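REVIEWER CHECKLIST
Item 1: Sequence provided? yes
Item 2: Single chain? yes
Item 3: Sequence as submitted:
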Amino acid sequence: MNKNISLEKSQKKILEVEQENRLLKKQISDLTLSKEKEKKYKFISNAAADFMTLINNNYIYEAVNNSYCHEHSKTQQDFIGKSVSEVWGEKEFRNNIKANLDACFSGEKVQYQSWFRFANQGDGYYNVSYYPYYGENGKITHAAVITSNITSQKLTEIALRKSEERFRGIAEGSFDMIFILDTQGNFSYVSKASKRIYGYEPKEIINKNFSDIFLDYNNNKVINTINNMLKGNKVEILQLNLKKKNGEIAIVEINALPIVDSGKIAGSQGIVRDLTERKKLEARQRNLEFQLIKEHRLSSIGVLTSGITHNINNPLTVIFGALDIIEAKNPNLMGLDMIRRGAERIGAIVNTLMKKCRRDQEEQRKKININDLLLTELNLLEADLDFKNEVIKEYHFGENIPDIIAVYSDFSQGLLNIIRNSIDAMYNRDEKKLLITTCLNENYIKLTITDTGCGISEENLSKLFDPFFTTKPTASEVRANEPKGTGLGLYSCFQLLNPYGVKIEVDSKLNKGTTFTIKIPFKETKK
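Item 4: Structure as written out by the authors:
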């Protein structure tokens, strides 16, 4: 009996020992794992570039990592057990650090950025974060502080801000409007010059699209140019019209470049320059120059023509008087009729010349018939023997051509310049043929002037009406009777006829000839 009791106690004791042994092994295992974790955490903490510290609610350092020690040029033993005020000084602790630690101990996560001085680095800009640490009882016992050195970012930010301030200073002081567009073509920045050029404050344009401002945006060339600009391609200087806040139209010039960020297009930036006044001045200058040339030319022609006609009319009067006397004395004398017809022909030419001279000097708008004007000019050209004898002329003037209201000299000089250009183009050509036709279309009179001259190259067609452009030899280069050029004939033609809404089209083939098609509105003839 006693033996059985003793055996039971022994077995029970063995079980208790085994259970304690298992528990002890678990505790040892847990402790080993805990130490391993602690070792890993310490490794991670010490390997981190950021500064890590653990401060208890008595403001005492309990743990610091290697980076923190390195910045202070101290060891961990120099911090552990020391108060924050001992490390940073009482003034820094009271003014900047304590309030943040107290907020953290009350349960807040605190973050701020400031300049600090460390022994190893000097002055630096740091991002400081305070995290509450909760103990086993659920209460906050410590503050985990992580500090990141962001000095380089701060210095870059300062440099960028200074650069931006310099740019803004230049931009805001610029007479031209400086702008920045995003990749969608929306304005993200506009300088103050927008008020002067556009009539709107910059804030009224920001976030608006490029197409909302410029009237020519629907033009294909403009659309392609803007799309190329937003794709990062360099674009040509573009001239556009924009409608100002007061309703006026401004002529502007735009020059833009892409903005590239990390190899990607981030938008575009450019300058808008107001050309309105410059264009007006240029137009006034051209008009003044043209009027001076015209006045001088007409004045010279008027004086010369008056003198010539006066000197011719006097002998003609004598001739007609002598014919009358001879005819009275010798009524059957042969050849008198031929002499009279010749004298009458001279008189008709003189009268036509006088009529043209008077009309050319008129500055007021009057009714003009294009067919009559052409006949007058072409008759006068018969004085040119080459034109009279060498050029085959074919005229087809349409019926019922309505009158237009215009200054006679504008059309006589303008159309004559084209005709003379056609005659000159046929110099030295085997076949010289001039075809002139008029006909009536719905809204305009169509005049065509076709020659069999040397033709115009594709390259030169776009330059025909430019001032001082000519393919003829100049006065110093001309030989014998070769026609010379000044580069002002077709230019003055355009300047004279354009105010009436006249459109001039040119079709030409080298060594074949050229056709000028002139479309003259007869409803709208305002100059």
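Item 5: Key structural point noted by reviewer: The first strand starts at residue 51 and ends at 56.
Item 6: Recommendation: ____
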